[in-house]
Amino acid sequence: MILRLRGVEHAYRRTVALRGVSLAVEPEEVVAVTGPSGCGKSTLLHVAAGILRPQAGAVTLLDQDLVTLDDAERARLRRRNVGVVLQFGQLVPDLSALENVALPLLLERHDRGAALTAAREWLERAGVGDERDTLAAELSGGQAQRVAVARALVTGPSIVFADEPTGSLDSTGGEALLALLLAAARERGAALVIVTHDNVVAAHADREVRLRDGHVEAEAVLR
Ligand SMILES: Nc1ncnc2c1ncn2[C@@H]1O[C@H](COP(=O)(O)OP(=O)(O)OP(=O)(O)O)[C@@H](O)[C@H]1O
């Protein structure tokens, strides 16, 4: 088991987003988290990736108890072993696309030349090699999404979380980016958790977990 959530609850002021969610993800498994807008998908992804500490319940990611790790320890775990593609604001606006992708490696004190080479390769694979010197603030929504995927994959994570990773792309671009995420996960033997409202994206998963009003409404094994 690479990820396990048990009885996770979370509320923002008066809005209850998660009401007792349990979920387990195996190594190499591709899981799609689906459900109507506002049902708690993004909150679940933030909790599972250690970005948000839930108000109740247990979260174990890569054998680490996320509820007891402090912010710095959770950030370190994410940088080393977890890839995260968020919906908004994930890139550093004043850095170029290349610098953004190299950043997780540089923060882990990798050799600068090797980090930039790896970043260049992932930008190429994500279809944004030509944008490497563009400031993140000047990228289109779709370009930024591709750069964010490159940044999530560059460290060779054991698990990748992606929140609507194809949301800003047309269907061809979305399929290409999804194919990249699936291929990178397969190459590495990584698990992939994708939040999506797109049935085409969900159909590529091994399992679909459908949320409704903050709880798991249904699970379906797809392959
Ligand atoms: N930072 C926040 N502050 C207050 N309420 C929030 C915040 N983030 C989410 N919520 C609320 O929590 C509930 C769950 O939101 P969440 O973003 O997890 O749902 P979602 O299924 O990802 O939605 P969507 O598909 O529209 O992105 C919603 O009612 C939302 O309005």
From TrEMBL:
<dbReference type="GO" id="GO:0005524">
    <property type="term" value="F:ATP binding"/>
</dbReference>
<dbReference type="GO" id="GO:0022857">
    <property type="term" value="F:transmembrane transporter activity"/>
</dbReference>
<dbReference type="InterPro" id="IPR003439">
    <property type="entry name" value="ABC_transporter-like_ATP-bd"/>
</dbReference>
<keyword id="KW-0067">ATP-binding</keyword>
<dbReference type="Pfam" id="PF00005">
    <property type="entry name" value="ABC_tran"/>
</dbReference>
<dbReference type="InterPro" id="IPR003593">
    <property type="entry name" value="AAA+_ATPase"/>
</dbReference>
<dbReference type="InterPro" id="IPR017871">
    <property type="entry name" value="ABC_transporter-like_CS"/>
</dbReference>
<dbReference type="InterPro" id="IPR015854">
    <property type="entry name" value="ABC_transpr_LolD-like"/>
</dbReference>
<dbReference type="InterPro" id="IPR017911">
    <property type="entry name" value="MacB-like_ATP-bd"/>
</dbReference>
<feature type="domain" description="ABC transporter">
    <location>
        <begin position="3"/>
        <end position="223"/>
    </location>
</feature>
<protein>
    <submittedName>
        <fullName>ABC transporter ATP-binding protein</fullName>
    </submittedName>
</protein>
<keyword id="KW-0813">Transport</keyword>
<dbReference type="GO" id="GO:0016887">
    <property type="term" value="F:ATP hydrolysis activity"/>
</dbReference>
<dbReference type="GO" id="GO:0005886">
    <property type="term" value="C:plasma membrane"/>
</dbReference>
<keyword id="KW-0547">Nucleotide-binding</keyword>
<dbReference type="InterPro" id="IPR027417">
    <property type="entry name" value="P-loop_NTPase"/>
</dbReference>
